[in-house]
Design brief:
2 domains, about 20% strand, about 290 residues, Epimerase_deHydtase, 11 helices, alpha/beta, NAD(P)-bd_dom_sf, UDP-galactose 4-epimerase, domain 1, 12 strands, NAD(P)-dependent_oxidoreduct
């Protein structure tokens, strides 16, 4: 099918584009700049110039496609206002895309985060987390899933806090960047809190499977590692960068401090059984060994 994708040149999106093209689909990719347009073309996709704020462009892209995958998000976590603005921009974009697809029975795959459930690993049956600085993303995705009753084959791939490739990406990537800047490979609290993770190439397979097979209104977990302790993540980062590893205040991580401190393991058992998804690429701790000093 012809697939319109937002965020198609990012760490996850570039893997999704390659996965789609490698399985017989064609791709129309939203691109914000000349550089991203060239990257999309080089990957084999057709670029469509525009950003998430260009709602008419989004509608036009969806109208030209047999299905839509949404991945784009302004990953500016510098302040609470920046995060709120990014969430608002995404909400408007998803609303526009969804309205364009109403009554078409076409697939619309979006993404959110795996929820945190006290005392156990979260599952696909748990509601999306709507608290915290990015809780608005989950509220919007829940609304989009409701379009199943209006003739859209909606599904949501819930991504863990770290989607990684070659030692970069996600929350672990943020820990690495902060460690480079501060000279300490830090973790909040005692570091026993667990973060789920998945390799970007494995996540890409799940996005394709959801596009092709998922029933309307369903949520899926792109989780390979159910939960790595954050102090273990910091230890590998510290080893690779030759930096001390120690606990630091949650405030070090700004608006993400609360999320960084939370224990949030997650299961993908149902996703694996129902869609036949099976992660094959290196886990997070192994992949972090690719961090360059």
């Amino acid at each position: 099918m012809r697939v319109f994708i937002t965020g198609g040149t990012g760490l996850i999106g570039s893997a999704v584009v390659a996965e789609l093209l490698g399985n017989g689909h064609t791709v129309l990719a939203l691109t914000r700049s000349d550089a991203s347009a060239l990257a999309a073309e080089k990957a084999g996709a057709e670029p469509l110039r525009g950003g998430l704020a260009d709602l008419d462009v989004l509608r036009a892209g969806a109208a030209r496609a047999d299905g839509v995958i949404h991945l784009a998000f302004s990953n500016d976590f510098s302040s609470a206002d920046a995060v709120a603005n990014a969430v608002a921009e995404e909400t408007a974009a998803l609303t526009a895309l969804g309205e364009e697809l109403v009554g078409s029975d076409r697939p619309f795959v979006t993404c959110s985060g795996t929820p945190a459930v006290p005392g156990r690993a979260s599952t696909e049956a748990d509601p999306a987390s709507t608290d915290g600085p990015v809780g608005g993303r989950s509220r919007t995705v829940t609304t989009i899933l409701g379009l199943a009753s209006r003739g859209v084959r909606t599904s949501a791939v819930r991504l863990p806090r770290t989607v990684h490739n070659q030692g970069d990406g996600g929350f672990a990537g943020l820990l690495t960047n902060i460690a480079r800047q501060s000279g300490v490979s830090g973790y909040p609290g005692d570091g026993t809190q667990r973060w789920p993770a998945v390799h970007a190439l494995d996540a890409a397979v799940l996005f394709r499977l959801a596009l092709e097979r998922a029933e309307a209104g369903t949520a899926w977990h792109a989780v390979a590692d159910e939960g790595d302790q954050v102090r273990d993540i910091a230890a590998v980062i510290g080893k690779r960068l030759s930096l001390p590893v120690e606990s630091v205040p949650a405030e070090t991580y700004g608006p993400l401090g609360q999320i960084f401190s939370a224990d949030q393991p997650s299961s993908s058992a149902h996703t694996r059984q129902a869609l036949g998804w099976e992660p094959k690429h290196p886990g997070l701790l192994e992949d972090l060994e690719n961090i360059q000093p």
